[in-house]
Design goal:
The structure is a single chain. The protein has four domains: about 1-80, Orthogonal Bundle (434 Repressor (Amino-terminal Domain)), CATH 1.10.260; about 90-170, Serine Threonine Protein Phosphatase 5, Tetratricopeptide repeat (Alpha Horseshoe); about 175-290; about 290-420. It is about 75% helix and about 0% strand. It contains 19 helices and no strands. It has helices at about 1-30, 35-45, 60-70, 75-80, 95-110, 115-130, 135-150, 155-165, 170-185, 190-205, 210-230, 240-265, 270-290, 295-305, 320-335, 340-360, 365-380, 390-405, 410-420. Helix 16 runs antiparallel to helix 17 (about 365-380). It has about 425 residues and is mostly helical.
Length: about 425
Amino acid sequence: MLTDEIGGLEAAREALARERLEELQALARTYRSWSVKELAFALGRQPGRLVPESGMPKIDLVVALAKALDWPVEAVVDHLVKPPSETRKSSSPMASTDDYASLYNESLKKRVERDFTEAIRLAVRACAVADNPTRRAAALVVEAQAHEAAGSYTEAVRCLRNASRIEGITVDWRLMCDANLANMLFMQGQATHALGIASSVLDYAQSVSDTAITRWARVLASWARGHALRSSIPTQNHEPWKPLARSAREDFRVAAELVAELHESVDGATIYYGTMAASIESITLELDAMCDDDAAEPVVRRLLAIVRDDGSCEPSLGERKAWAAVALANTVKRFVTDEMQRRGILEVASATLRAHAVATTNWYFAHQHLELDAERRRCLTGNGVASRALDAVEAKLVAGVLGQIPAARRSAGEFLALYGTREGVRA
């Protein structure tokens, strides 16, 4: 019976959760040299009721256990809910090379077709039948890219971290894993971490064989490092940061050259890097304005033209326009002093970012939109205008950004306060 099977799975899940919780509590006792009674006191529980029947503790127990272990809370949660084995075993030990290649290529195809659920499923199967460490890592990279496209940045980072830890993968694919990880960390707002990983990839790539995979890794690492540097430059008093802007511009120049080379030499590069190649121009324009103040006015006009599609004021769903909107907002904040003009252009940029985020579940652009919108709402609130309640679309954006962009959580209270408490209720 189906109900019997479900019941058995649920019982197995609860047993595993209890086992994991007991493991962590035993580790905490050893780490602190506590007795059972001392552990129970620290966790706020009775000695005989340290583990709930379901195995899944309430949040207060998780927080107390994290403090006892000196772990982040998310590390405790991750240990409690992770699958029974970190190793994905093949359900078909005799699977052939053709099976792997078919699954891998079909996953890529499904991602291009925006069938992300199927792309993830196929990538997981490819990883399961992979016959060597490099193929497992490659399948995890493809799975991570599908998770990213589906809006699950946390899962994408998990896949890439797992891929980087695999023993025995070739150097070029290790660089590819790390370059993808640097890009995802930048999108999550962890610019310093992304900068370090991307710089390591670019430094080490100079001493290894120049393969197509190595070049792809260099493209992503240059892109990620350029963005990490660009995003760290303040919008106020940017003059001392011009050397950083020049370094970021050089990274984007290298990325553009490599993309052009790959476009000529590798089949499929047009599809994979076409959007990146088109987006580099917009990002470079922002850096041009920072490096040369006289370029600011023409840069604003050019970025507005890209965002408006050469005259159309309808917000575009294209990623090129979204990057142009990010660059436009930063440039306007730095150089436009007329308040009415500044506010109008920022609203255009915000609307473009919102449209793209809603259409594609891109949480990086959603975060940029919310930051711009929060700035506008702060001005309105200062004029005596109440915050507006969340509608369904904005609730999705706020929840998605807070869930997938760790850097946004420091503004969680402000986001919720500015948008009101719940749909249909004004502050």
